[in-house]
Amino acid sequence: MTTALHGLKVLDLSRVLAGPWASQILGDLGADVVKVERPGSGDDTRAWGPPWVAQADGTDSRQAAYFQCANRNKRSIAIDMATAEGQALIRELAREADVVLENFKVGGLKGYGLDYASLKAVNPRLIYCSVTGFGQTGPYAPRAGYDFLIQGMGGLMSLTGRADGEDGAGPQKVGVALVDIMTGLYATIGVLAALNHRQQTGEGQHIDMALLDVLVATLANQAANYLTSGKAPVRLGNAHPNIVPYQDVPTADGDMILAVGNDGQFTKFCAAAGHPEWATDARFATNPARVAHRQTLMPLIRQATVMKPTAEWIALLEAAGVPCGPINRLNEVFADPQVVARGLKLELPHPAFGSVPLVASPIRLSATPVRYEQAPPLLGEHTAEVLRDWLGR
């Protein structure tokens, strides 16, 4: 069965997460992705452990789980780009490639003759995607950028964490490198758009992706709230700035999520909670009123929800058509019947480790489904194979 990007050649010079996330998506969709790594050490994330992937005999492999999350469906080739021979070899590969991904500092590849202008000269149809912290222009362009740093600079941490005055108040980063992931997604979109443009015109182009740009662009309603009102949003813990009730609430045996998105759902919640009078109270009858009277309403809701255990509430509210759910740990996530039914955990055979556990792609294409052909590679595992396939050597 064919794949959506069958025949596309991607030369991946990136490492860590944002660039590799984009190239993994392209590989999942059928592109031939060649990952260029430093001989001896490879991608930095190979050493970002523990935990480590266990070898087939159960011993420690010293290959980090982190590396596995972003590098399936790729072939690894070990090239020392600090040498003239390595630079020449990468230029040869770039001549055959459709896409190059890189996340070096601005200007970092120019001295190697591997920047966009240099590679465009040998392959005018090349789509060259650069991923940096701050982009190719602007006063911060020369700076290194990391996800945690960008979460702070871009405002996300000012919106995440307990409200001022509460125990444990203060800015918090998100629990995964979300800016890197979102940048990888936007980079993939940019590559696909550039491929469509090339198909129409024959022209390649340079894609300039910046982590800071991506975070600011994805502040969504919070950015709109600020730009409209002139007031900077504040941390609300798990509460929502524009919707009430839309947060965690206590139960008799823990906590649950209550996500009431409209007035009809609120009326159903009130009936299920045994307080239909809330739905007709002028302070609570509409969402704007509930937002204005949040501090009055939420203590009343908490007093009600704490009377039943989580499972009982979920059964009751789901039957009533009120969105709600548990707050799962990852062991509970991967045991969830919906997650199991959707096949979100998979195992891929590996030449050294027997198999590796991975998370499936969420992209479901009916005619050209995602493929899972190659486990995250060993360092330089495919050097000879790639040189044969791409360069005929």
Q: Output the structural class.
A: alpha/beta
- Strand segment count: 13
Q: What spatial form do the alpha-carbon principal axes imply?
A: elongated
What would the average pLDDT be, to the nearest integer? Answer: 96
Widest sheet: strand order? 5-2-1-6-7-8
CATH top level label of the largest domain: Alpha Beta
Biggest sheet overview: 6 strands, parallel
Count of discrete domains: 2
CATH H-level superfamily title of the largest domain: Crotonobetainyl-coa:carnitine coa-transferase, domain 1
Q: So how many helices?
A: 17
End-to-end gap: 29 Å
**What CATH architecture of the largest domain would you give?**
3-Layer(aba) Sandwich
Structure characterization notes:
- The chain is an alpha/beta fold.
- It has two domains: 9-217 and 340-391, Crotonobetainyl-coa:carnitine coa-transferase, domain 1 (Rossmann fold, 3-Layer(aba) Sandwich); 246-328, formyl-coa transferase, domain 3.
- It contains 17 helices and 13 strands.
- It has helices at 18-28, 65-68, 84-96, 116-122, 147-153, 156-159, 178-201, 211-217, 220-229, 263-272, 277-280, 287-292, 294-305, 310-320, 330-333, 337-341, 383-391, and strands spanning 9-12, 32-37, 52-54, 60-64, 74-78, 99-102, 127-132, 205-210, 246-251, 254-259, 324-326, 345-350, 354-359.
- The strands form four sheets. A six-stranded parallel beta sheet has the order 5-2-1-6-7-8, sandwiched between helices. A three-stranded antiparallel beta sheet has the order 9-10-11, covered by helices on one side. The chain has a two-stranded antiparallel ribbon with strand order 3-4.
- The longest helix has 24 residues, at 178-201.
- It is elongated, with a radius of gyration of 25 Å.
- The relative contact order is 0.14.
